[in-house]
Amino acid sequence: MNFVTIKYTLVFISFSVLSFCFPELTENLNLNLFDSKLEQSLGDLKLNIDINSNYSFKHGVASGDPTADSVILWTRITPSHILNKSEDSVPLFVSISEFANFESSRTYSVLTNKNVDYTVKVDIKELKPDTKYFYFFTTLTGDSSRIGYTKTLPTEDAVLKSLSFSVHSCSNYANGFFTAYAMAPLKKSVDYVIHLGDYIYEYQNGYYTDG
């Protein structure tokens, strides 16, 4: 893993920029602030959200394509737990806030279905530049994802002392070591994460080529 500091150049960041998820943040939010339940008002709908019931979101959360005033948030629900297979679509809600305790937050609704493998991408707009945001997804059944965080880009004319990136590349799933992915969120100096992509392996799973 390479840590690169860029002082005056702002580069385009693809959807490979992932948000970080902290189980410990979820635990602290649960125990210290809301006594295991977060009561979130969604218009006329009121849900009691269990912050720790993330088993409907087995693929976690992610974010990408940040701009100075927007970011795309992603998740996937596990349909076998929360819906009958005959249902055409499933409503999800995503809450986003500048505060880890969601003291002041916005909540959006979105539909997903089997045609997109029960994934969602929500383009959140009207955000502040160069600002960290916390977010999580919920279902109508009260299941919730882990809490992730993301960050918008600075404006084009912003004067920055530094801008730090964590750069990741291809990993061999069968033989690789993934410590770098776990350590990146712990580097508080990292502003954004860039993944350069992967390739199709030409050799049998679990083996390297001689060349």
Q: Give the CA-CA distance, first to last residue.
A: 23 Å
Helix tally? 3
* SSE pattern, N- to C-terminal: EEHEEEEHEEEEEEHE
Mean pLDDT, as a whole number? 72
Helix content: under 10%
Report low-confidence residues grouped into runs of 5 or more. Answer: 1-54
Please identify the structural class as seen in this structure: mainly beta
Q: Tell me, briefly, the overall form.
A: globular
Strand count: 13
Can you list the strand order of the major beta sheet?
A: 2-11-10-7-8
**Estimated radius of gyration:** 19 Å
Approximately how much beta-strand content do the residues carry?
A: 25-35%
The biggest beta sheet is recorded as: 5 strands, antiparallel
Q: Regarding quaternary structure, how should these chains be classified?
A: single chain
Domain Phospholipase D N-terminal: 59-152
Domain PhoD-like phosphatase metallophosphatase: 165-207
Signal peptide: 1-21
Keywords: Signal
